[in-house]
Amino acid sequence: MKSLLEWVDLLISEGPKYGVFPEFDKSYCIVSPDYIDDAKELFSHLKINVVTGRKFLGGFIGDAQDIQAWLEKKALEWCDAIKKLSCAAQVVPHETFTVFTKSLQKEWCYIQRVVEGTETAFDSIRNEIQKSFLPALTALDLDDVEVNLMLKPSRLAGLGVDDPIYNAKWAYTASKEASLVLSKVICNGQTFDIHAHDEHYKKSSARSKESKDEELRTSVESLLDCLSSERKATLERKLTYKCSTWLAVTPNSQNNFILSANEFRDNVALRYARSPRRLHATCDGCGQNFTINHALKCKTGGLIISRHNEFRNCNADLLGKSGLTQIKIEPVIKEASKSSAALILDFCARGFRGKPNKMHFLTSASLMLMHPHIRVSQFLQFFTTMLRKKKSKYNSAVEELRGSFTPIITTCDGIFDYHGECYLKRMSERLSLKWDRPYSVIMGWLRCRMQMCILRSVSLCIRGSRKRWNNQEAEDGAAIPLVYEC
Ligand SMILES: [Zn+2]
Predict the structure, then answer these.
(1) In the chain, where are the structural domains located?
(2) Which of 136, 159, 231, 369 could cross-link 89 (Cys pair, CB 3.0–4.6 Å)?
(3) Stated pTM of the model
């Protein structure tokens, strides 16, 4: 403590030269409870506040009891914030989900990194998330397995809502390990080498992330074993394929990534192989039982055509934005004859693959049924069958036009087949050059844009009206006088 007083004296004498004018009545000296009387005596002439615990740079320094009391107070504030967000989630779930994942949970993530032993303080927050937030967000009655799955990162079949108790265990150890070079320098008074710190930090962070991911993946796999084989197959696809970008993106009005309440909840329910809430019993178009699969395939009312057209127009628009000028929607590749109907593809663009004189034809094919029985191992076979079907129908006509052809096959989860993935990569490359932005940023944005297009289409098929509305049975005003004459 005497050396601390020497530092204070040096600060008083040398500080003003560098513009530092210490105000000791606003300063705190944190000591162990055993030394509090000695410290008060030592610093009494400077009127420095002597305490056993005090918040510092967003964290807390002090004995375990003080830390616990401070954390409990913070936890109460956060529980209150979660309750408020739960109320908002009933009306605007996607916006609330973004506020929670991108802002609120980051507050306790920081404290978990800088304060040791915080696990028990987060019991109440986890309970609040389980009891209020997730049910309000999804509008579903969730069991423990579903909640535990949702509290995982989105790339591991979760929603991206962090489990605060589990994270507390990892965060402090990982942060302490990553800042080891820096803390050693401070404690031993050595010269700081920023390159050594940077290298150690990167290696240590990558190592911690890898171990945490491995543990989380094992935990997800054991949770999936508790589900029925059909639900397990649906969630395994989310683990294997890249179809969860829409949960990680920050939506705003400029990027058009905000989903309506029904769109968000329908797709969260389908992600966990649950039936979306308030489904009608019968189809308003054809009168059959209104299951999810029926909603996604019933052609009455034009919703399927509308879904198809939206995906086609979105892609044709992006091709134009990537700098291609010769784009045609619905090109006729073979005229109708007496024996066969005309062959029409979705869109084509000259020079898409880099050869300026070659027309590239594209068509989208959607595996838009929920296929709970299809396991990941059978999925590739499923894509191949669809690909062969499309190629056998269109390939020869395309070759006669000296063009090339790519069928883009997608599922209602937002998963693309191999050729679809190649198409996305090529498109990202073109947009990256055109917009002068990194390829990885464009790829993430494009993947999300495609997923949003598909997810909105799925919700449209579930919620949209298939009823053919009659007009007022009057084409013009000619029939109106008859009403008065009667
Ligand atoms: Zn129907």
Answers:
(1) 2-51, 64-226, 292-463
(2) 136
(3) 0.84
CA pair distance 258, 246, nearest whole angstrom: 10
Run of H or E including 377: helix 376-400
311 CA to middle of ligand 1, Å?
22
Tokens encoding 3: 């050396």
* Residue range 8-60, pLDDT digits in tens: 888 889 988 999 888 888 888 888 888 888 888 888 888 888 888 888 888 88
CA of 110 to the centre of ligand 1 (A): 51
The Å distance, Cα 471 to ligand 1 centre, comes to: 22
Report d(CA 424, CA 351) in Å as an integer. 16
DSSP labels, 458-485: HHHHHHS--------S-SSGGGHHHHHH
Q: CA-CA distance, 54 to 62, in Å (whole number)?
A: 6
Q: How far is the CA of 369 from the centre of ligand 1 (A)?
A: 14
288 CA → ligand 1 middle, Å: 6
For 390, the enclosing helix (H) or strand (E) is: helix 376-400
Tokens read off for 18: 């560098």
Provide the 10 A C-beta neighbour count for residue 302. 13
In the reported structure, the alpha carbon of residue 408 is separated from the centroid of ligand 1 by a whole-number distance in angstroms of 26
